[in-house]
Amino acid sequence: MSSTLVLGGARSGKSVYAEGLLAGGPALYVATGQAFDDEMAERIRDHRDRRGPDWTTIEEPLELAACLDRHLSPERPILVDCLTLWISNLMHAGLDVGHQTDRLAELLRDPAGPVVLVSSEVGLGLVPDNKMAREFRDHQGRVNQKLASVCRRVVFVAAGLPLIMKDTL
Amino acid sequence: MSSTLVLGGARSGKSVYAEGLLAGGPALYVATGQAFDDEMAERIRDHRDRRGPDWTTIEEPLELAACLDRHLSPERPILVDCLTLWISNLMHAGLDVGHQTDRLAELLRDPAGPVVLVSSEVGLGLVPDNKMAREFRDHQGRVNQKLASVCRRVVFVAAGLPLIMKDTL
Amino acid sequence: MSSTLVLGGARSGKSVYAEGLLAGGPALYVATGQAFDDEMAERIRDHRDRRGPDWTTIEEPLELAACLDRHLSPERPILVDCLTLWISNLMHAGLDVGHQTDRLAELLRDPAGPVVLVSSEVGLGLVPDNKMAREFRDHQGRVNQKLASVCRRVVFVAAGLPLIMKDTL
Fold first, then answer.
1. Which parts pass through the membrane (chains A, B, C) (predicted)?
2. I want to staple B41 with a disulfide (CB 3.0 to 4.6 A). Which of B35, B65, B112, B121 is the partner?
3. Interface ipTM
């Protein structure tokens, strides 16, 4: 089954692009984000309104591999949005990002149904001042590399436009 | 008439690349930047010296749609450099970036003359700490998406080298 | 002889990709980084372990042009990792980055042996607050542009995947 990693910066249109890949039928939206403040709550509401009634939404801030294992199916594609918040959640919970990523990668090597994962590219600015931010950036980069190596397709989105980085039949 | 959006990071060579698209004849340079300090004044002078005497320069910090409407012409191409400073100017002036962008996009859908617009990609680093910076980044991303959707060509420049993201005949 | 510039963000997989270009035989690794603290020492150790015993490592924090001039040879390819630390070293030493870059570019125009250089893309985030960081970003962008203009191949790496920006036979 197909697996697609959609990379992009903030406000690059990566989520809209990823949703477009699954348009035209029911799909399962796995939200990793949690509404801790008003700004975040508003973004989550915006995303949900945009997707419309064909989509079922579930929230999974931490156990992504287990969640996908449960829900992957040839009948209904899954969109995971996004890995960046997932990494942030894992770090806050004191969990091992590397181990969780390995579990996820294992599952994505030959997924039981179509899945699209959205992730941010955060490493193209200057080195951040504080160690925590550098650690986050390192995790994000390693997660992107690891999942890019197992997903069949990798797309980089800028200004809403896709650039195909990898395409395996 | 052709419309081209040139995206790139800081010191990516995007302005030089954009100027090269219009080389070989008279052109109109629409500068959105204003020399508030010495660093900025120096950059503006450098840009102007590089373009040479074939170019006419006008300054338009805010009313970009009206300015283009007045000056677009099949005889003389226009270069707008850059949308990033324009967004910053609009925000400082308390104007509605979304509304101004819609007006600009409307005009670029079928422009009365060739036009090239330069814009920065600023969303590929970490999430900034302060709300103002996040708002700016959101505006910049939305402007790039909106204009990329109406311009015929979109080029991403890195290290002075172009990557064609969109090319419509 | 071939010269390749490998660009990418932090944790983009650019070093691993660059090493892969030279795999399968002896190579010379020119490290510009110096282990000033534990974090850096660990990264240097990790890189060295990954490359294995086929590689000879030398350290050259500042005199990169002279070092390449001495070591370039058709028999043994060179990997320079990375230009970003080199720029940082030059700035700390109060040396002229532009002049040093010109010397390096001159050498890379027609190198006496195969060489791969790794550099970071740091200009795709927001404008940094402090002048020193802006200067560093400007230097990094100019070095990338200058070397991209003379190297035969330029590759942008994201999530471990290469995007060919320039390829001259």
1. none
2. B35
3. 0.92
